[in-house]
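Record type: monomer structure entry
Structure origin: computed from sequence
Chain ID: A
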Amino acid sequence: MMYSSRRKPVLYFKEERRSDLSKVPQQDERFLSGKCTIYKLFGLCMVLVLISLLWLQLSCSGDMSSVMHQDRRDPQPPPPPCPTERQASAADDPSWGPHKLALVVPFRERFEELLVFVPFMHKFLNKKKIRHKILIINQVDHYRFNRASLINVGYMESGNDTDYLAMHDVDLLPLNEALDYGFPREGPFHVASPELHPLYHYKTYVGGILLLTKRHYHMCNGMSNRFWGWGREDDEFYRRLRKAELQLFRPSGITTGYKTFLHIHDSAWRKRDQKRVAAQKQEQFKVDPDGGLTNLQYQVDSRQELTISGAPCTIINTKLECDQSQTPWCLLS
């Protein structure tokens, strides 16, 4: 909207005054030209300057007074807001819903996959109008990789502004937009179900991508911290879901089968740590009745806000702690 601009009038002497001065009697002219001293001429100039300044001040005061009276009678509306203020953010748009997802990604040294994952998931969730923040829980200690403990850390560090979690592998990308990432009110929702996951098809599988409310995750006491190295932590968590009497849900009506997800992990280039050390081979099939959030030990080494191709994420560099008397297989030596 265009608003009329106010112009302050330019003050200058009218031509009439110049003509009046030209009519000064010839006798006065002779007096000024012949008998006037330098001091008298200077004094006359000063008088003219003072009169001009006084007239200018009175004119400006009168103009400002009229402007103020006009403003009182007809107040102008404020200027239009900036374009950025007009655009409603996702936080203010009710169509995005009241819930916010903490996308928790257990991570170590897979930066090529991270560069693909973060912008892909940010765009995918925005298109579905899912409020979210992406938390990369980066293990920086010298112990073996512990996916379950890192997810526990993600839960603890997710903040009060989120109310549900996605336990999400960094190498698994959803290709079907019909997949539901919404709030799993009724119970845990296994997005990467055995009927859709490109690799794992057994019925009790709950890995890859699992959504659940923070309240339900707390009811399970999180995940067991005993699983160092790759695998088996999901199978133990399946038993926790059953023990907590939580109903597990999976997608329905998805017709893309094993092409529903893109698995970007290169097993030939990046080998998984599948070694079983000491008593780990026997212990991996046991239920951990007491461990989880209650005995999680870690330190946040640093926290970094990062943007990858325009997509924001938070890197939480984490040092896990290991009680080697309980799980000596946290080290390969």
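Annotation 1: Strands lie at 101-107, 132-139, 164-168, 172-174, 189-190, 209-213, 261-263, 298-308, 311-320.
Annotation 2: The first strand starts at residue 101 and ends at 107.
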